[in-house]
Fold this sequence. Notes:
It comes from Cohnella hongkongensis. With 183 residues, this protein is mainly β. Helix content is 12%, strand content 38%. The strands form two sheets. Strands 2, 3, 4, 5, 6, 7, 8, 9 and 10 form a nine-stranded antiparallel beta sheet that branches. Strands 1-11 form a two-stranded parallel sheet. The longest helix has 17 residues, at 5-21.
Amino acid sequence: xxxxxxxxxxxxxxxxxxxxxxxxxxxxxxxxxxxxxxxxxxxxxxxxxxxxxxxxxxxxxxxxxxxxxxxxxxxxxxxxxxxxxxxxxxxxxxxxxxxxxxxxxxxxxxxxxxxxxxxxxxxxxxxxxxxxxxxxxxxxxxxxxxxxxxxxxxxxxxxxxxxxxxxxxxxxxxxxxxxxxxx
Length: 183
């Protein structure tokens, strides 16, 4: 399902404000190019992600990810592409809390809530809670998902080359590359 241009614009403005409040300065071009990933689910506030990509070359990538309060980036993995092992990424929490779930021993009582109606598509529950200044590295080809805490979160991502169009999501309804429609 496409996302409306007005919804993208509101999310971009909100994202820029959150980054500015954390002391992260964006250029005008970066503000205008904030990616709003709604995943085609028409639930941006529940399942979505806002991204600023600073650099993405054939060797490395640096981004800031913004999660609104309790907003969830759905479960996915970064598979091998073109003979490369898949993206390895390090998440470093800058503000708020991030509930990160990866493959491994499930948490007895996960702190994040799976978005209603999407329960069958969330399968990994090994919990890592990142507070500001803490980081975690996700190996290539590893299922993971993450959710902002009650006040949302800002996460810096440092990774090998990002090829988002090849991400594999557990939920078959997801469209990774946004389709934007005028309203």
